[in-house]
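Practice record 12: protein with adenosine-5'-triphosphate.
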Amino acid sequence: MSTESPLAHPPATSAAPSGEGQPRDFIRQIIRDDLASGKHHAIRTRFPPEPNGYLHIGHAKAICLNFGIAAEFIGWCNLRLDDTNPGKEDPEFVEGIKDDVRWLGYEWHDLRHASDYFEVFYRGALKLIQDGHAYVDDLNPDDMRAYRGTLTEPGRNSPYRDRPVEENLDLFRRMRAGEFADSSKTLRAKIDMSSGNMNMRDPAIYRIRKVEHQNTGNAWPIYPMYDYAHCLSDALEGITHSLCTLEFEDHRPLYDWFVDKVDLVNHPELWQHLHDAGFQTEPAKPRQIEFSRLNLSYSITSKRKLAQLVSEKLVDGWDDPRMNTLRGLRRRGFTPAAIRLLIERLGISKQNSVIDYAIFENCVREDLDAHAPRRMAVLDPLKLTLTNLPEDHEETLLFSNHPKDESFGSRQVPFARELWIEREDFAEVPPKGFHRLKPEGEVRLRGVGIVKCDELVKDAEGNVIELRCTLDPESRSGMPGADRKVKGTIHWVSARHGVAAEVRLYDRLFNVPAPDDESDGKSWIEHINPDAKRLVHGWVEPAAAQALPEQRFQFERLGYFVADRIDHRTDAPVFNRAVTLRDTWAKQSG
Ligand code: ATP
Ligand code: MG
């Protein structure tokens, strides 16, 4: 039941570059107006995930919005675990969610659980019954559905709808005492079975479920429905602006109905016991405002499907670097700053859209280009021997760590007679326009000088296994020929000093832009990109091997990499590729 046309809210000025002024989306405008009019003096928001999985990139939008607003205006943001659905929820996910929110760079005011309020919800339900706004229904779930009607036909009143208040109170107390079997009775709101909004057709408030709960154990045999618990949790915490995604737009009338009918602000007897238990609460009337979800191409943003990838072992767990969970992105080498940049660029609006994954990758490149020191690594090694250097030749070259930022300083890179170069930087039969190494050809070795390929060494099958080259001494730094131009420059690692590394080359998990779109008759699982993970063994310069877990680098000419936060060791380095230097998908698809 939208009361506002989506067009009433133009998209935020998403082109604003990072840090240029404050975001000016329609939600922030509402908040500015509420502060200016004196409706609110402080802004209170919350981020309310259900702990039934780990957070994904879509959640990052809600996190940045809620915590961002609390930080920009005078206010705070709670982290509330929306745990009203026992059975699917797990304390492991609670810990993971806390970890991920902090990793993104945010700190909550209070950590709450919807289950902290179970007693409040129960008392609120008794009040609704007493006021004639709720009744216990004996219809079974199938009949209840049939009575509900359809979008074009009104529903019918349940035969139990007019039970006297005393009978309802008695039955509901006995539901709470555990006297009835699962699903045999339901507490329902008495609203309007002919409402044009299906959500208002006597929605369920409580159902019987004798299931252990991750926070409250077996204390409760009945559990509140989301629509009832969520708005009351907001009201109880004094949330001023309850920001949620567009699918809740039609639930807003019900949200307001429960808040008004339970009326926590004027009924402290419903929640005062929380104070005795140490909770600060100052109930207020919250306002729900909806915004569009973040959808990314080549990705899935549904916890259920992400959970399926994990349980069917199609990925190596929730933190698999191919997953767009926050922990997957973290392990992949993506940065909190890049994720925040993406969210800021996209802005907040009511327009649903799918964001091109390349925009996300570009945010990662932009952040890492500025913040990742440079190193050299060779991922597909071919030996190059400089025959005019003595066998024991060894020197240390000084390399700057960042071409555009002197504050990164410099490092020592060992250089010797035998080097590794990338196999693809040599071609025995070069294609036209090939500017790297070829027989009799010359190339610049990054930071060293110009080398000429004199001779190829091949194995029994005819594969090139070594290039024998000479280094032009006149082309070295400080020599008269140092400026001599050759077309190509390639990177290298000293064979004697390089450290063997495992390198995991990651790419997009799906090979089509809309894996969820099943109109082609294929399941989303069939669109998993089999090349999204490739393992190679290469060589890295010593300064790269010394990395701390989670340290990120640009490996020159190869891309941005991170030392794996779990498996990396300085004597057995493991790097994950976050992203290539340039978009390799654009030319494939277009
Ligand atoms: P999923 O469908 O993946 O299970 P959900 O919406 O059920 O997601 P919750 O844990 O209930 O997940 O979400 C917590 C908060 O994050 C909610 O306010 C929800 O609106 C928001 N959120 C979830 N997914 C997205 C998304 N793709 N874009 C923006 N906000 C999102
Ligand atoms: Mg949900």
